[in-house]
From TrEMBL:
Belongs to the shikimate kinase family. This is shikimate kinase. Its cofactor is Mg(2+). It comes from Thlaspi arvense. One of its GO terms (cellular component) is chloroplast. It catalyses: shikimate + ATP = 3-phosphoshikimate + ADP + H(+). Its EC number is 2.7.1.71.
């Protein structure tokens, strides 16, 4: 079994393999939980204080954390985002997603995370937060495409070259990202429609942010549709136009999101937390749920991987 895993997950040479040793998940559930409170206090402080050494370490690993020349160029192009410190501080007032990230991280073995979901579902917002607390690099697929097109915006690419050209660039970007480890990727909402993209995203763990269309339409109406050409329309009030467009898109591709390894349902989190509305959920709460769903997925995956004879 170990050989099969090693074959599937080829770590680039910079990864410290001792840290990636396969750990049984029951130690995740019991042993770690016993220690987590104590360890977390120091950890939260370490994350909240600006630490130049960590920044340096991140930038160094960003330069080398890739397994081919393309991804090296990708990283050196400076596509690692700077993090929104306000967001992180807000997170620290919540339930500390750091704790959940530290719990899950040893069991990821360096695997990347791909956030999928409809436009406006929070892939970028939540993805940045997840990358920060995991100590992973963050990439936004749309931004990478814009960089590959010398700064041409997604809206301009759609206008001048058409959607299928854009989809080709999206697949190129995912292909490059799929050779990298320890990255969190915010994919474009339509990345799920091409089966080839799933081949690349399944190199890591895919997480679907499942947000009700009404909430999406409110968010989109608030920020406008300039950067989202598929929603752009001159006529009608912003919420109604966004809702109608999103409904049509959902009918076409809703099913495709279910290919993701983990589903983060904002409705379920709101019920669990006793909130009336999904709009009460913070990115930190959503990130915590994402880590929990990843944890459940890893547990299921492990059960599936161990043949009966080995138990
Ligand atoms: N949990 C949330 N609650 C309220 N607004 C949010 C939340 N997450 C994201 N947003 C807002 O919704 C908009 C779209 O979010 P974004 O992260 O860009 O989505 P995506 O990358 O999936 O298109 C942004 O204006 C963002 O600030
Ligand atoms: O849903 C889609 O087809 C698209 C979503 C957008 O990304 P976001 O989901 O980040 O808005 C962007 O890739 C492009 O406008 C197409």
């Amino acid at each position: 079994m170990e050989a099969a895993i090693a074959q599937r997950v080829q770590y680039p040479s910079w990864v410290d393999c001792r840290k990636l040793e396969r750990k049984p998940l029951n130690s995740l559930r019991y042993a770690q939980r016993a220690k987590e409170e104590k360890r977390f206090r120091g950890l939260a402080l370490a994350h909240l204080l600006p630490d130049k050494r960590n920044e340096r370490a991140r930038s160094v690993s960003s330069e080398v954390s890739c397994s081919d020349k393309n991804s090296s160029a990708l990283l050196q192009a400076g596509s690692v985002h700077s993090f929104d410190e306000d967001l992180i501080l807000k997170a620290s007032n919540n339930e500390y997603p750091f704790r959940k990230a530290e719990e899950v991280k040893p069991y990821l073995h360096g695997r990347s995370m791909y956030l999928v979901g409809m436009m406006g579902s929070g892939k970028t917002t939540v993805g940045k937060l997840m990358s920060k607390v995991l100590g992973y690099s963050f990439f936004d697929c749309d931004t990478l495409i814009e960089q590959a097109m010398n700064g041409t915006s997604v809206a301009e690419i759609f206008e001048h070259h058409g959607e299928s050209f854009f989809r080709g660039k999206e697949t190129d970007a995912l292909k490059k990202l799929s050779s990298m480890y320890q990255v969190v990727v915010s994919t474009g909402g339509g990345a799920v429609i091409r089966p080839i993209n799933w081949k690349y995203m399944h190199k890591g763990i895919s997480i679907w942010l499942d947000v009700p269309l009404e909430a999406l339409a409110h968010r989109i109406a608030a920020v406008g549709t300039d950067s989202r050409p598929l929603l752009h329309d001159e006529s009608g009030d912003a919420y109604t136009v966004a809702f109608k467009r999103l409904s049509t898109i959902w009918d076409e591709r809703g099913e495709a999101y279910t290919n993701a390894n983990a589903r983060v349902s904002l409705e379920n989190i709101a019920v669990k937390r006793g909130y009336k509305d999904v709009s009460d959920l913070t990115p930190a709460e959503i990130a915590i749920e994402a880590f929990e769903q990843v944890q459940s997925y890893l547990e299921k995956e492990e059960t599936m991987e161990i043949p009966d004879g080995d138990l």
